[in-house]
Amino acid sequence: MSKKRVIAIILAVVVILGGITVSSISAIVSSFISNSSSSNVDPFTEETEQQGSASKRIAHLTLNGEISDESGGGLFGGSGYDHDAFMKQLDNVKKDKSVKGVLLTVNSPGGGTYPSDEIYNKIKQIKKKGKKVYVHMESLAASGGYYVSAPADKIYAGPQSMVGSIGVIMSNVDYSGLQKKLGIKENVIKSGAHKDILSSSRPMTSDEKNILQSMLNDSFDRFINIVKNGRHMSEKKVRKLADGRVYSAQQAKENGLIDNIGYQNEALTALKKDIHAKNAEVFEYSDSVNIFSTLFSAKSTIKQFNSDIKGIKSVITNDSKAKPMYLYEG
What we know:
Elements: H1 3-38, E1 44-50, E2 53-64, H2 83-95, E3 99-108, E4 110-112, H3 113-128, E5 132-142, H4 144-147, E6 154-157, E7 162-164, H5 176-182, H6 206-231, H7 235-241, E8 246-248, H8 249-254, E9 260-261, H9 264-274, E10 280-287, H10 291-317, E11 325-327
Parallel strand pairs: 2-3, 2-10, 3-5, 5-6, 5-7, 6-9
Antiparallel strand pairs: 1-10, 4-11, 7-8
Helix pairs in contact: 1-10, 2-3
GO molecular function: serine-type peptidase activity
Protein name: Signal peptide peptidase SppA
Region (Disordered): 34-53
């Protein structure tokens, strides 16, 4: 038995022993947060980055790490990105009439197709409110990181940024050869020919590859369309660029994937000029220091704990199911 699996089993025992307590706490916390949310309690406070006009403000948001609807961190690592919190920040920006512009700093390899699309949709809603959205890309804005950036009014990237990786990916591992050597055989009873598609205990059939490719093509076509509309390109040009590669900042600018090469302060200066507010207040969100934010954080921790349970189960049973991802894996 491998060392990794022994550690996973020990962790599983600890998780099981604490499971009932965690479930009880989770129920209490979720109930409290649900009731507090209906009372419009906000888990965030604002921290001023630059003093200025309170009637024309700029919200500085940061998207850092892999885009996932699971909480970041935990026993199995993670990016630290909190999707629920980030979506709440976008909602706050959308509702706040004093916010005239958004500077979104992106440093992400992308992630899940669904949470990436949720962010994209929320940014579109913010723009419909007449607010300007500028993106500044740091070291990496790839795949889903580019997907969420595409609708921005202007995109800036640092001189050493990597941009692009337009595409979709899905993968799984075939353990059938190893299982055969070990004398392990899985018995599957199913209602349809493709019910166990992506099974790790047998090779994938050509029909299954075609089914999955067709599904990925739908996600890919949506990505193409979003870039086409956001960057005002022809579909032909976008498809030519969308072979999965990342581009340097210079290449991205030459191909129309970004507007300018520059640093965050340059993007902010341009945004202030665009909204006609050189003296705009610039702020960011941080967790509120109150009982609600403490419980909000507790809910996030419990959510991550539950995610870790799934991770432990995956290690023990090899029950890892693939799904489409807007993710750069370089």
